[in-house]
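Progress against Task 2.4 (sequence-to-structure conversion) is shown through the following example record, which the project officer requested during the mid-term review.
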Amino acid sequence: YTLPETSREGIRNFIRVCQKHDLKIGLRVDLPCTVDNSTGHPVPVYWIAHPNNPDNELKPYFGWLTDLITLMKGHVDYVILGDELEWKNAGDPKAWNAEAYMKFFTQAADVVHQADPAIKVSMYSATPARWREVIGLLKAGCAKYGDGVAINHYNYKVVKQFKEDLKTYSPDKKLVFLSNGVGYIACDTTERNPPTDGYKRYNDLDQA
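Structure tokens generated for the chain above:
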């Protein structure tokens, strides 16, 4: 959990390019994880980030996160903390759910806000069709510590309803709505992950 000088210089260059072209910067920062390749398809396992794990790696992770946000201070609009953490059975001590994530999120949001109070902090980007998890986090008090919500969704037609839900479950605080993946398109490449995926491929011209 360190930022070597080569990474720091790369980040500085990225900031300069964004400034040159008047582009805003948002970050999606993953939680600490290991990777399970037993099924032939890499699957992230977030037990080392879990608050219930007595040997979790959150302390060094938060130190790294502080370093990253401090380096980019004044240049980042928002930070999304995590990606597609799928909730499991409540009886499993390793499961992620609203309670477990909120234990992480309250600490992580505080770390980000202390490093740069101007940054808007969002809960993780929910898996498509799991908007109920976003509502679950709002009911658990996510809006008290964060500034936005996020979902990787493929259907732009439902966004209007999502925003109506935000008004219902966060009536006293306007939250930023962040969506990544509306209109996912597979690029034209011979590399596939997983190798047997059935997505139709589009070249650069077709995508444009």
